[in-house]
Amino acid sequence: MDFVMKQALGGATKDMGKMLGGEEEKDPDAQKKEEERQEALRQQEEERKAKHARMEAEREKVRQQIRDKYGLKKKEEKEAEEKAALEQRCEGSLTRPKKAIPAGCGDEEEEEEESILDTVLKYLPGPLQDMFKK
Prior knowledge:
Subcellular location: Cytoplasm, Cytosol; Nucleus; Perikaryon; Presynapse
Radius of gyration: 41 Å
Distance between the termini: 115 Å
Organism: Ciccaba nigrolineata
GO molecular function: syntaxin binding
Subunit structure: Binds to the SNARE core complex containing SNAP25, VAMP2 and STX1A.
Shape: elongated
Mean pLDDT: 77
Largest sheet: none
Family: Belongs to the complexin/synaphin family.
Low-confidence stretches: none
Strand content: under 5%
Number of strands: 0
C-alpha cells in the first residue's frame, strides 16, 4: 500500500511535509543566487533598451532621408506652421475665431444687413420709422 501511495503522490511527499508544518530546508546560497538572478535580469533589460534605442535611431535616420528626398515635413513642424499661420491672420483681433474667415466675408454682411434694414424703414409710414429709429 505504501508503494501505491508513493506512486500516486509522486515527488510531492517532501512538499507535503512542508505544508503540514514541517521545517523547510534552507539553502545557504539562496540569497547569493537571488542577487545574481536579479542582476542578470537588470543587465538583460538594459541590453534590450539599448538595442531598441539603436533600432529606433536607425529608423529615424531612414525616415529623415525619405523626408529630405521628397521634401516632406514632420508632423510637429506642420502643426507649428499651421498654428503660426492661424495666429498671424488673427493678430489684430481681440478674440481668436474658431475657424479662419476668408478676407472680406465678415464685415460686409453686417453692412449689407444694415443697408437692407434702412431700405425697409424707408417704405414704412412716418410714425413706425420713428419707433424703429429709437
